[in-house]
UniProtKB/TrEMBL annotation:
It comes from the Bacteria. PANTHER family: THIOL:DISULFIDE INTERCHANGE PROTEIN DSBE. One of its GO terms (cellular component) is cell envelope. One of its GO terms (biological process) is cytochrome complex assembly. Residues 1-112 form the Thioredoxin domain. This is Putative lipoprotein/thioredoxin. InterPro entries: Thioredoxin-like_fold, Thioredoxin-like_sf, Thioredoxin_CS, Thioredoxin_domain, Thioredoxin_ResA/DsbE_sf. PROSITE patterns: THIOREDOXIN_1, THIOREDOXIN_2. It comes from Flavobacterium seoulense. It is found in: Cell envelope. The keyword Lipoprotein applies.
Length: 112
């Protein structure tokens, strides 16, 4: 299972949520959870600084195009943070969960 996490270094709510996502990743990565971070940043330095500061150890991608990010367009992202949980086949099984709700959904899906 994979979480596609849309965020940006300049997004306050994203940065507040990042520690929750880190905790979930650290707890469940060994059980099959992966995360791909997709940034809507335009400044590579600020993006990389945020990854380091927030300890985001999973794969991070960005075309540094802000809201013109093609992956965000593909997922029809209109606000961030935005999370999409994909099952093994790549189907979206949940979206826009945060904190305890996100953790509970991961536990539920990993139990299947």
């Amino acid at each position: 299972m994979t979480i596609v996490d849309f965020w940006a270094s300049w997004c306050g709510p994203c940065r507040i949520e990042n520690p929750n996502v880190v905790k979930i990743y650290n707890e469940f990565h060994s059980k099959g959870l992966n995360i791909i971070g997709v940034s809507l940043d335009q400044d590579a330095n600020k993006w990389k600084e945020a990854i380091a500061k927030d300890k985001l150890t999973w794969t991070q991608v960005s075309n540094l195009k802000g809201w013109q990010e093609p992956i965000a367009s593909q997922y029809k992202v209109e606000a961030i943070p935005a999370t999409f949980i994909l099952d093994a086949s790549g189907k979206v099984v949940a979206k826009d969960l945060k904190g305890a709700e996100l953790r509970a959904k991961i536990i539920e899906l990993l139990a299947k």
